[in-house]
Automatic annotation (TrEMBL):
<feature type="domain" description="HTH lysR-type">
    <location>
        <begin position="1"/>
        <end position="62"/>
    </location>
</feature>
<dbReference type="InterPro" id="IPR036388">
    <property type="entry name" value="WH-like_DNA-bd_sf"/>
</dbReference>
<dbReference type="Pfam" id="PF00126">
    <property type="entry name" value="HTH_1"/>
</dbReference>
<comment type="similarity">
    <text>Belongs to the LysR transcriptional regulatory family.</text>
</comment>
<dbReference type="InterPro" id="IPR005119">
    <property type="entry name" value="LysR_subst-bd"/>
</dbReference>
<dbReference type="InterPro" id="IPR036390">
    <property type="entry name" value="WH_DNA-bd_sf"/>
</dbReference>
<keyword id="KW-0805">Transcription regulation</keyword>
<dbReference type="GO" id="GO:0006351">
    <property type="term" value="P:DNA-templated transcription"/>
</dbReference>
<keyword id="KW-0804">Transcription</keyword>
<dbReference type="InterPro" id="IPR000847">
    <property type="entry name" value="LysR_HTH_N"/>
</dbReference>
<dbReference type="Pfam" id="PF03466">
    <property type="entry name" value="LysR_substrate"/>
</dbReference>
<dbReference type="GO" id="GO:0043565">
    <property type="term" value="F:sequence-specific DNA binding"/>
</dbReference>
<dbReference type="GO" id="GO:0003700">
    <property type="term" value="F:DNA-binding transcription factor activity"/>
</dbReference>
<dbReference type="InterPro" id="IPR058163">
    <property type="entry name" value="LysR-type_TF_proteobact-type"/>
</dbReference>
<protein>
    <submittedName>
        <fullName>DNA-binding transcriptional LysR family regulator</fullName>
    </submittedName>
</protein>
<keyword id="KW-0238">DNA-binding</keyword>
């Protein structure tokens, strides 16, 4: 099979995947729609297989086109990072790290100054991400920190670096009904972005399911934890996201915490796993995770 005829054809394919239509892709590339169509046709002729599907005047990618566009986006990202490294100096690297918001604000931010000192050759941009996102749909992210609920795809390298324990937490001002057992009678705060956490906790802890007096759905885990701090009810939270609140007595964990089968992991694309900034950050996280897990065990025992 012949290699791609031109970089412009690949740019047109990637723009169509990202923008969703010929006209939007053309605006993004600064060309007329006809030029995009011409580049896509040339690319199909080069490969000898259809890459797009036409429905009236609408043009979208078929399965082959989507697969190729995903690979092209990753390749463009690698080239962009390489160009940045060349232009900013041979010994400096830039890395965009995606982190779920509760983990970013409550665990990583208190350690950022130490990270910057110890990884001084790497400019790390911490990007808060939805816990449901993956590297496959975030081409501008180089690496990702994920919790036990995340299922990485085969082309992702995932390294465990810290225990992921989770459990119910609420404000000390929330007093359970003495006539009911443990969590019964409380308001359950359900984070929509991780709506399975309660079911996961009942299953993994062996605790019998509870009939709550009320269920309150909240947009995401960050807001659910904030609602728990303010006495609105009880939510399930990773220990790493509430450790400071537990230590300060802002939150209590009457049922304790249980370790998830798989802990927090550092994820990157297989193609990047041996790159120097990825290796350095992975090693740093593993050491920080080891220290955290040791101190967290003592704090969890005292909280329970």
């Amino acid at each position: 099979m012949k290699f791609m005829s031109s970089l412009n054809s690949l740019r047109a394919l990637e723009a169509l995947a990202r923008c969703g239509g010929i006209r939007a892709a053309a605006q993004d590339l600064g060309v007329v729609p006809g030029a995009v169509r011409q580049q896509l046709t040339a690319l199909e002729e080069n490969f000898g297989v259809p890459l797009i599907q036409r429905d009236g005047g609408r043009v979208t990618l078929n399965a082959n086109g989507k697969r190729l566009a995903d690979a092209v986006a990753v390749a463009f990202g690698i080239m962009t990072r390489a160009a940045e490294e060349i232009t900013t100096g041979a010994h400096r690297y830039r890395l965009r790290l995606g982190v779920p918001m509760p983990m970013a604000s409550d665990w990583l931010m208190p350690r950022m100054a130490r990270m910057q000192r110890q990884l001084s050759a790497i400019d790390i941009d911490v990007v808060p991400v939805d816990v449901r996102r993956s590297l496959s749909d975030m081409m501008d992210i180089d690496a990702l920190i994920v919790g036990g609920e995340y299922q990485p795809l085969p082309d992702i390298d995932a390294t465990p670096f810290m225990d992921d324990a989770f459990g119910p937490v609420h404000s000390p001002s929330v007093v359970p009904d003495p006539h009911l057992s443990d969590l019964q009678g409380l308001t359950a705060l359900i984070a929509r972005d991780v709506s399975s956490l309660w079911d996961d906790w009942f299953h993994e802890s062996g605790h019998a399911p509870v009939r709550f007096s009320k269920r309150l759905e909240i947009a995401d885990l960050t807001l659910a934890i904030s609602a728990a701090r303010n006495g609105l009810g009880v939510t399930i939270a990773p220990f790493a996201s509430v450790a400071v609140d537990i230590a300060r007595g802002v939150l209590v964990a009457p049922e304790g915490f249980v370790n998830r089968p798989v802990g927090f992991r550092f994820c990157c694309r297989m193609a990047d796993r041996d790159e120097k900034p990825i290796v350095s950050l992975r090693q740093w996280l593993c050491e920080e995770g080891r220290v955290h897990s040791q101190s967290a065990e003592k704090l969890r025992e005292s909280a329970e």
